[in-house]
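TEACHING EXERCISE
Course module: macromolecular assemblies
Task: Read the component lines below, then compare them to the predicted structure of the full complex.
Student: A.B.
Group: 4
Components provided:
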Amino acid sequence: MSTQGLPEAGTAGAGAPGRAGAKAFDVQRVRADFPALRQIVRGKPLIYLDSAATALKPQCVLDAVNQVYARDCGNIHRAVHLPSQRATQSFEAAREKLQAFLGAARPEEVIFTSGTTQSINMVAHCFGRARLKAGDKILVTGLEHHSNIVPWQMLCQAIGTELVVAEIDERGEVSLQDIEDKLKAGGIKLVAFAHVSNALGTILPAREICALAREYGAVSLADGAQAAPHLAVDVQALGCDFYALSAHKLYGPTGVGALYGRFELLDSLPPYQGGGDMIRSVSFAGTTYAALPNRLEAGTPNIAGVIGFGAALDYLASLDLDAARRHEQELFRYADEGLRAIDGVRRIGTADKACGALSFVMDAAHPHDIGTVVDMEGVALRTGHHCAQPVMTKFAIPATARASLGIYNNRADIDALLASVRVVKEMFS
Amino acid sequence: MMSELRELYQEVILDHSKAPRNFKFPEGANRSAQGDNPLCGDNLTVKIVLDGARVVDIGFQGSGCAISQAAASTMTEMVKGKSTDEINAIFENYHDVVMGKAEINEELLGKLAVFAGVAEFPMRVKCATLAWHTMQQAIRGTDEVATTE
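Instructor-supplied answer key:
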C-alpha cells in the first residue's frame, strides 16, 4: 500500500465511499477508550485539538505500561527469570508490530529510539559522519521541523557538509521540479524531508521525492512523525532509506520512537552509542559489536514505553483504520471550511493534499491571545511557531494557532473550536 | 470563566496593544537591547536615552501578543523620566504581582495594576515581563539578547 491510494484531504473522491466493507466510523466508541477525554477543564469537557503535539492515550496503552511496572518488571535481553522473559517478549513483539505497521521487510530494520528527534540525530551521527564528507550536500525542505534542520546544521559545522533548502510556495507546498533541479546540480548525498508538515499539514509527495533521491544517488530520510498517525505508511512502497517516527503522536507513550532503516544500509552503519546490549564481546584488547537491531540500541531502553507503543499499535490494528482516516479527512474539511468562513481568519498552509493540522491567524488577535481565550472555552490548541520557524518566516508571521486532529475528534469538537474562535474575534475587535 | 478573561484583557491592555505608545526609537538613544520569547516568537527592541542613572526617553518596536505589546507600551510610559532605582522598585512589585507572589502596591504601579490578572494565567507571565527584562538589559548596557527562558 502506498500513500497514493489513501484518502487525502482535498483529493476528489477521497474516502472511496461505495467501497465494499466501508462503514461509518464509530467515533463515540473510540472516544470512550480515551480516559483523558472524560475530564472537565475550565468547567467544560476537554476539547482536545493538539494531537500533532502529542496524542491522547487509550486505556489499553496505560494498562500495558502499568503492567510492565506492576508485574513484568525485569530488564530485557538479560536474565532468565520470568519477569525478564515476559518483558523481553513484549518488547520484541512491539518491534514486530511496528515492522508490520511500517511494512518493513524485517524486524531488525526497526530501531527503537527516544523519538523522532533521536532517530534523525542517529542518522546524522551514524550515517552522516561515516558516509558524508566536506562539500557533500544535504537537501531539506522549507517545511521542516527544527528536529530535521538542526541535526544537519550541527553535522555541517562538524564535518563541512552543506545544507541546501527546497523552499515552499505560498500554499506551503514543495516543488518536485525544484527538488530535481537541485539534485541535478549535483553533490546532494542525503534528502531529508517531512512526510507531513507539522506546522501546515502539507502532505509531501514522499514516494516521488525518494525516487528522485535514488535516481541521483542520494539516500532518503522521511520524518514521519506527523504522517504515521494519519496516513498508511509503507516504507517499501515509499522507497525511503530511513523513516523516523514517534510513539506519542501515535497514541503511545512519550519518550519512545523508532528509526526504520533499509537493512543493508543500516547494517553498514557504525554504532550510535557504546554501552550495554550493543556488544558481542568486550575486552580491553578490543570489542566487537552485536548484530542489528541491538547494535544501535545501547543501554537499557524505555522498556515500558516500547511495550506501550506496541499496545498503541495493537489498538490501531483493532480499528477500521481506513474508516478512521476517512473520518479524519472529513473532519479536516469541515474544520477547514468552518475556519475559512469566519471573517478575519486566514488559513496558513493551503496545500492540495494535507492532513492532521490546520494553522490559522486572525486579524484581530495574536496567536498567543487566541490560545488563551480558546483555552478558557475548554479548547486545547497549539499556538506558536511549532518548532518550524523557517515556515513562519516564509509566511512573514511570528506564529500561528494550530488545531490538529486525532481519531477521537468529532464534529462537536470542531463546532466548539469555531465557536471559541468567534469569541476571540468578539473580544479583540 | 469570562470574568477571568476580562480581568486579563482589560480595556487598558486592549487599548495599548492596539495603539502602543512610544512605538518608535527615541532620538539620541544610547542604550539598546533585543528581547525574544522563543516559545511564542514574540520579539522586541527597546532603545533608551540614558542620562546617568535616569531614563530620559524610551521607545520600542517589535511584534507580539496583546499582553506583551501592552506591557511594553505601558512600561515605556511608566519609566520615562524615572531613575533606575525607581524603575527597579516598580519592576520588583510588578514582577511579583504577575507571578501571583505579592499584593499590588497601587501607589508604585499605578496603571500597571491592570496586569494583575496575568497571575491567573501562568503561561502568560513571560508575555508581561519580556519588555521589562529587555529594558533592564538595555540599562545594564550588555549586548546580550534578553530572553524569557
